[in-house]
Amino acid sequence: MTLKQLEVFLAVAETRSFSKGAEKSCITQSTASQHIQSLEDELGIRLFDRGRGGAMPTEGGKLFLERARRICGECEASLAAVRRFRGMEDVVLRVGASNVPGTSLIPASLGQFLLDCPKVRLEVVQGDSRSVLRQLVDEEIELGFIGGRYDEDQVEFEPMGEDSIVCAVSPDRVTSGKHSLSQAELCRVPLVVREQGSGTQKAVYEALTNTWIRKEALHVVAVLGSNEAVKRAILDGTGYAFVSSMSVAEEIANGQLVTVRIPGLNITRKFYAARRAGRELSPAATAFLGVMLKRWQQQRQKQ
After folding, report:
1. Which CATH architecture has domain 3-86?
2. What is the pLDDT of residues 113-134, one digit of tens each?
3. Per-domain residue ranges of the chain
4. 187, 212 in Cβ contact below 8 A?
């Protein structure tokens, strides 16, 4: 049974004529008869009574007619849905983002994306970098934007740009204008850190391997689950924290936070766009990735 056979069957049933049904289907009458005969042979019933009144559906034909209409209707709906998908109309694009991309990079790119793709609805799911990768592998999202690269065979990583991680603190905690800490002093000050799985924390611990500091020697007073929570804690004077320079740029500019230098410890990390390996992106995802990469390039040129 083929879709063409069903279309011919419907055309003959609607016109009550093999010749008119063939014309409607853009085929010859003999070809239309062959399609109906093939259907009848496969179903094991006669579909039409041929007489002076034309081609009239039999009782079995009437039963099959309802289902044939439903099947062809679903096919038309499916074709229309794919056309909308290709044209990025009435499409929902789900992406995942770790804290900094989710709160800084994506919102800054959203306006341009909506101008380019006004009929796409963007849904952003935020979490740490590890959770974003899990959602990507589980096909809950199509793209992920994270602050680190991980060993994951099912994911491809495309570098987007680089960010510096600074040690920030409320100015109220800095005594006598001391804006630097030795590595030994760093181990004694109260430190607020991100949870395991955070790209920021991963970059910090990797940088510590190039110093004599062991992460177990740090005086960690709190482990928090988001960049905003860490920032809120240090704004309230809880302690020091390693944070993305982008995430605290405004607070540093207005004097709410200051940065502290640790000689011998310079931390940078890259942001990546992550996608499932070997899988084609949808048109909407391709467009959004292009906007994100362009936005990062423009931001880098301004620096």
Report:
1. Orthogonal Bundle (1.10)
2. 988 888 888 999 998 888 999 9
3. 3-86, 91-161+270-302, 163-269
4. no
